[in-house]
Structure formats: structure tokens, C-alpha cells
TrEMBL record:
Organism: Desulfobulbus oralis
Aminoacyl-transfer RNA synthetases class-II family profile domain mapped to chain residues: 173-491
Binding site for Mg(2+) 2: E410
Name used for this protein in its record: Lysine--tRNA ligase
Keyword Nucleotide-binding found: yes
Entry-linked InterPro entries: Aa-tRNA-synt_II (IPR004364), aa-tRNA-synth_II (IPR006195), aa-tRNA-synth_II/BPL/LPL (IPR045864), Lys-tRNA-ligase_II (IPR002313), Lys-tRNA-ligase_II_N (IPR044136), Lys-tRNA-synth_II_C (IPR018149), NA-bd_OB-fold (IPR012340), NA-bd_OB_tRNA (IPR004365)
Cofactor note: Binds 3 Mg(2+) ions per subunit.
PROSITE patterns xref list: AA_TRNA_LIGASE_II (PS50862)
EC identifiers of the protein: 6.1.1.6
NCBIfam families according to UniProt: lysS_bact (TIGR00499), PRK00484.1 (NF001756)
Keyword tags: Aminoacyl-tRNA synthetase, ATP-binding, Cytoplasm, Ligase, Magnesium, Metal-binding, Nucleotide-binding, Protein biosynthesis
Gene Ontology cellular component annotations, sorted alphabetically: cytosol
BP GO terms, sorted: lysyl-tRNA aminoacylation
Main location: cytoplasm
Length: 495
């Protein structure tokens, strides 16, 4: 294997030689290339060794991905955003001077070509170049063809290179864009207005999470990158919007693993005069429709597991899930101290104010969550762990809330929203009083949100869907970093 420094030096020598010969290494003269995907169908009818009888000249540009030279002729593969095509370059067609310049081209260079279509002896559609032009000289060699770019950290850190040498990566992100576009279309078709709410907040709320803190110099105040847009979107319900949604970033100063990134994308939406049952119906329709349009079917495979996204989806209360999936004795569900002891025996540590509701939630995570492969709505969460959800009118110890699980991970969280300002303030205060050293609970009560509720918020259903996890599911991606273009990494060590 050649020394990387030697390869860099050779590239720079070639670039210097081309520049000395008057070649523009970073020019902007090659205009309006045609996408390869538009050109390829034009040559499908050609036979082996046949030229296009129409004699149409095409103009293409892209990156050289492979290159074979044979003295007075060469073949190279050109890739643009739409596809890849072979280019045939002959000295007698492109001219002596242009061909001498071409001999200093490398894999990785971005180049332009003009010519006519033909098929080679082997039947490969190619463009026979009559003109070649350097567009952008690449000063660094691409990873070796047969081994590619395999180091995971390098792939995440140098995503631009990852996309060049691993076409499936670029395909994943194109699919991500399509998923978000389809979500927006779905929501707008149902009368939801898209809103933008503050990224910097004086009081972080809408979820329990440790925020990132910053300081505004002009105002002389600390601010927090938002952990959720919930409380601002519900202020819009107070203001008279009846259906509203936002797709944007949240920031949580927590651990990093295959399911978590400190900066991630969520969609939150709220609908006046709706309940969490309506949210379940909408979610079921949205994700099954996405699967049909993006994957071609509601039957998909995720990391080797078959997943059926066709409605109707299973709906279980948390208690039912603990018994039917987690294997708990139904009698234990009514034994608060027993639940606490069982959770503690499995390594759970509780704050002094914690009760059996917290124990149920911890046991659910330990015993049930990873077993929920096909879509499952888990409902009836304890009030103790649901400070923003409406109490169930028949059993105030429970809330009208669900979480959606697919492939063993949470995809969505939804409530019938709490709109009683007195109950809301009391629950916020109770949470703050019992926070102990829990940094995920902000110690300041959002009094403006309480004031907004005092003006009256209509009954409503609301939900948050993790866009990154949804994209993971629909692109069969193992890690959240595989669906985030530039995931957060530690600074690169000095070379």
C-alpha cells in the first residue's frame, strides 16, 4: 500500500502541472449538465457495438469513480446525483492537448464530458466523449475500491466522503427527505398548520431531560436549548389554532447510543377537541401510509426481524403489558411496596418521593419494552410519571396517555392533554418538590404556561413522534447516527 502522504504529494504535483498548462482546476464554465438518469433510458434500445443513430450529443458531469487507461484510449465511470455511466475517451476524438491533460486526471476528480451514446462489445451503455473538461480537481484520493470506507467513526465524521464511496448512504438520506416531505403532506391534508416555536427558552419544559444551557449577553440572562416544543405549541391552542404541528430539532444533554443523540428531530402535533384515541388512529394511518409509499409494503424487515405495520395495531394498558408480555403476577400490580422491591432487586434506584407508578414504569422498561416488535400502543400510564397528561376520569391514578413501541423502542408519546391550570400547577410543583438531585427536572415552574391555561385551552390530544427513529425503522438502519447527516462526535485527535 502506497504511503498516504506520497499519494497526496502526487495529486498536488498533477494539479500544479495542469495549472501550469493553463487548465482551470476549479472553473465554473461547464454549464447545465444533463442528469445521467435522464440519459440512460435513451440508449436502452441500442445493440452491442452500436452507436446512437440519432447522433444526439449529451452533456454530463460528475465524479470519476473508476479509471482504466490503455495508451490512446481510456474508460472511466462517472457518477452524478442521479446515477452512474461509463465514459469512453479517445485521443483522436477529444484532441491531443485535451488527452494529455486527461492523463493527469484521477479517481475522485469532478469532470465534464460531451458526446454520443453507444454500447460496448459487452453491452454496457457508454458515452463516447468528443469533449472533456476538468471541473474540480480532487487533491485527496478516495478510499481503495474493494475495501471502501469501513471505519464507523470516520464515516460519521467525514459524511461527505461516506456518501461518495457508499451510495447506499446517500440513498438513506434521500429517503429521509422523502419521509419528512410525506409527513408534512399527510399533516397538511388533515388541516394541521405548521408552526415554528422558540429554540431558546427561559424555562425548559415539555419533557423531563437535562437541557443545554447558554447565556444571552444583551439580556443578561441564562437560556436553554429546548428539550421539546410542547408548551409553546399548546399556547397556540390557547391562541385559537385548532390543529398545529412542528418538525424541528430538540436538544437533550444526555447519553449517546444507537437510539439517542443529543440533537434530534421530532414532530409534535396538537388537535383541539381530540383525545389520545384520536392520536392513535392518526398515528396508525400515518406510519402505515409511510411504509406503503416509502417501502412499498406494510410488511417490512428491520435488522432481520419481520415487522407488520398493517392496521389495526395492538393496544394494551401498561398493566396488561406487564402481565401478558412481562410475565408479572396480576396481584403484584396492586402491591405498591412489592413492585418497589421487585424493581430495586433489578437494580432500579428511586428518589425518596417515588411511588409504585414509577416502579411500574421501570419494570415495563426492563421486562416489556424490547419484546414489542410489531406496533403496540401502550396506554394508561401512572399519573405519577405523566405530569402533562389528563387524568383518566374513571381512575385518577392513571392518565389518558399512550406510548407507541415498534421493534422494541419508543417511536411516539401522546396524551389527552391536561388543560386544568390548577391541576397542572400542582403537578408541576409536586414534580419540582420531589426532584431531589434529578437534573432532568427543571427547578423553575413555567408560570407563563400556567397563565396561558388560565385563559382556557380547549380539550386536546397531542403527540410527539421521533423522526430519527422512524427513519431508522423505514430505512433498516441500526443506529440513529446512520440517519443523522452529521452526528455529534468528540473533537478529532490531532494527527
Amino acid at each position: 500500500m502506497e504511503n498516504p502522504n506520497t499519494l497526496l504529494a502526487l495529486r498536488r504535483d498533477k494539479a500544479a502541472a495542469l495549472a501550469a498548462e493553463g487548465v482551470a482546476l476549479y472553473g465554473n464554465r461547464f454549464k447545465a449538465p444533463q442528469h445521467l438518469a435522464e440519459i440512460l433510458p435513451q440508449g436502452e434500445q441500442l445493440a452491442a457495438e452500436e452507436h446512437d443513430p440519432a447522433g444526439t450529443t449529451y452533456r454530463v458531469a460528475g465524479r470519476i469513480m473508476s479509471l482504466r487507461r490503455f495508451g490512446k484510449a481510456a474508460f472511466f465511470h462517472l457518477r452524478d446525483a442521479s446515477g452512474e455511466m461509463q465514459i469512453y475517451a479517445r485521443r483522436d476524438l477529444v484532441g491531443e492537448t485535451a488527452y494529455e491533460h486527461f492523463k493527469k486526471w484521477d479517481v475522485g476528480d469532478i469532470v465534464g464530458a460531451e458526446g454520443q451514446l453507444f454500447k460496448t462489445r459487452t453491452g454496457e451503455l457508454s458515452l463516447e466523449a468528443s469533449r472533456l473538461e476538468m471541473v474540480t480537481k480532487s487533491l485527496r484520493p478516495l478510499p481503495e475500491k474493494f475495501h471502501g470506507l469501513t471505519d464507523v467513526e470516520t464515516r460519521y465524521r467525514q459524511r461527505y466522503l461516506d456518501m461518495i464511496v457508499n451510495p447506499e448512504v446517500a440513498a438513506t438520506f434521500r429517503k429521509r427527505v422523502e419521509i419528512i416531505r410525506l409527513i408534512r403532506e399527510f399533516m397538511r391534508s388533515r388541516g394541521f398548520l405548521e408552526a415554528e416555536t422558540p429554540m431558546m427558552q427561559a424555562v425548559p419544559g415539555g419533557a423531563n431531560a437535562r437541557p443545554f444551557q447558554t447565556h444571552h449577553n444583551a439580556l443578561g440572562m441564562d437560556l436553554y436549548l429546548r428539550i421539546a416544543p410542547e408548551l409553546y405549541l399548546k399556547r397556540l391552542l390557547v391562541g385559537g389554532f385548532d390543529r398545529v404541528f412542528e418538525i424541528n430539532r430538540n436538544f437533550r444533554n444526555e447519553g449517546i447510543d444507537t437510539r439517542h443523540n443529543p440533537e434530534f428531530t421530532m414532530m409534535e402535533f396538537y388537535q383541539a377537541f381530540a383525545t389520545y384515541h384520536d392520536m392513535m388512529d392518526l398515528t396508525e394511518a400515518l406510519i402505515s401510509e409511510l411504509a406503503e409509499k416509502v417501502c412499498g409494503s406494510t410488511s417490512i424487515t428491520y435488522q432481520g426481524q419481520k415487522v407488520n405495520l398493517a392496521p389495526p395495531w395492538r393496544r394494551l394498558s401498561m398493566d396488561e403489558a406487564l402481565v401478558q408480555v412481562g410475565g408479572l403476577d396480576p396481584a403484584l400490580l396492586h402491591d405498591g411496596p412489592g413492585l418497589m422491591r421487585l424493581a430495586e432487586s433489578r437494580g432500579v434506584k428511586f428518589q425518596p418521593e417515588a411511588g409504585p407508578g414509577k416502579a411500574k414504569a421501570e419494570l415495563f422498561e426492563l421486562l416489556v419494552e424490547e419484546q414489542l416488535i410489531d406496533p403496540t400502543f401502550v396506554t394508561s400510564y401512572p399519573t405519577e410519571i405523566s405530569p402533562l397528561a389528563r387524568r383518566n376520569e374513571e381512575n385518577p391514578e392513571l392518565t389518558d396517555r399512550f406510548e407507541l413501541f415498534i421493534t422494541g423502542r419508543e417511536i411516539a408519546n401522546a396524551f389527552s392533554e391536561l388543560n386544568d391550570p390548577i391541576d397542572q400547577e400542582a403537578r408541576f410543583q409536586q414534580q419540582i418538590d420531589g426532584r431531589g438531585d434529578d437534573e432532568e427536572i427543571h427547578p423553575v415552574l413555567d408560570r407563563d404556561y400556567i397563565r396561558a391555561l388560565e385563559y382556557g385551552m380547549p380539550p386536546a390530544g397531542g403527540e410527539g413522534i421521533g423522526i430519527d427513529r422512524l427513519v431508522m425503522l423505514l430505512t433498516d438502519s441500526a443506529s440513529i447516527r446512520d440517519v443523522i447527516l452529521f452526528p455529534l462526535l468528540k473533537p478529532e485527535s490531532a494527527e
